[in-house]
Amino acid sequence: MKASRRNFLQSLGVGVAGLGVSQQTVASAPRPPKAPKPSADEQVLFVGDTIAIANTEHGKVRGFILRGVHQFLGIPYGADTSGKNRFMPPQKPTPWTDVRPALWWGNTAPQIMDKRYANPYASFVDHWNYDDVSEDCLKLNVWTPALDSQKRPVVVWLHGGGFVNGNGIEQDGYHGENLSRLGNLVFCSLNHRLGSLGYTQLQAAGGHAASGNVGNLDMVAALEWVKNNIANFGGDPNNVTIIGQSGGGAKVTTLMNMPSAKGLFHKAVALSGSSLAGVNKEYANKLGLNVMEEAGLKPGEIDKLQQIPWRQYIDIANRAAEKTADEAKRLNLQRGGFSPVADGTYLNGGPFFADASHFSADVPLLVCSTFHEQSPSRTDAALENISIAEVKEKLKPRFGDKSGEIVDAYAKNFPKARPIEIWSLVMSNRKNAIAAADAKASQQKAPVYLAWFGWQPPLFDGRMRAFHCDDICFWFYNTDLMLTHTGGGKRPRTLSEKMANSFISFVKTGNPNGGGLPNWKPYTSQNGETMILDDSPMLVNDPDREARKALA
Prior knowledge:
The protein is α/β, with parallel strands linked by helices.
């Protein structure tokens, strides 16, 4: 099935008339600068004793220069988190006196790596990049056009993985070289503690009060490193944008609601994920006590818990989470397990964005999701021919008796959509993205911009659709690098130029206009202004509102 070159929204039969469509394109930005083309096969990689040396508060680092962009990989921003530092707020790294090589990625945070590459489809499409796994994982990476005093805007990337998996360079599309060159900006990515090692609330068991949020405090420490050091890399610590996707989008919204993060960033972008509250504190304390019990320890024996090998500890914590599942049901929690805890001290205890005087009220936010966060037929071609009645049955485990009503509502909203597309749209519904935009907009101080990514790659016979993660490489100008997400070539690059330049405008000014997309109005709950990102981008007013009503 060949991917539609038209706007996907129109292919579903949504009439653009009456939707408040804006296709008036802002004057095109200058053609993006390209990597210098070597003449006569000149050298493009430079590395050596006196090349790419930068100062940090902990010591000097030596990187390399590739295609004109300085790159520094695996710079420590915190100390080893094993032993006595486990479950504790991050500590400063030990200073060094020699010039430290920053030539390779830092360790991936502890997580279950068994069978990580078992699924050949996922391995091919995302071709995961994982380095050594270690509790000595508080490292970050920097891409910059030059080591000077130009004060470029700074982008800080927070990887996905639902607070449990992933790392800062999990996919090639996370590389910052192309965006750094295109936007004349400094790009950073980082690793931090994940899962039970980053989010086990042990206060009730005699542990540190911050133990349920140390993974997020790692991110705060990385942002503090940026504040104190990024000027040495040609960046402006007073113009920092945080951006994350999936679980990384939830990291963005939780950081926006952490008192210790105040002033460390100035704009925010949440892609295909957000969070509007932390984990219930009562549940988190119960889970922490169950972890101690599962480990055969008494409350107060945190030092013994700190000595258990990290892989064994993860298994212990996961068993404890299973035993605490009934507590999560009793409290009617949408989220259990190990993720940021609403303790009221390190993370807001109530709903996020509820306070118009909160520091986050002044931070512009861009929210994006994809049409097909989940595409059921991606690896099963037979599902392309599923009937609408079968779709209703498939959705019953998730929506119960309402599945028929919901499917009918989406079919009415999108009259030309095939049953398989309806299934995907329902599973990938924008309920959470709209909730995040509404909550942030209610503060009425800084603008919210909302996008919906509908570009479909011509891969796997068109069955991938606009899938979860596909938009990342467009924002970062990496469509020719992340070929297994785009196919490469002019078509995805054309949209990427507009998206990346609009993102760069947002990074610089808090307003995405001027990058080549149509005039992008801020989101309002009344109109639901939404930028459709496709071969023919357009701004429309809440194109799926009628369908979403059935989800209430």
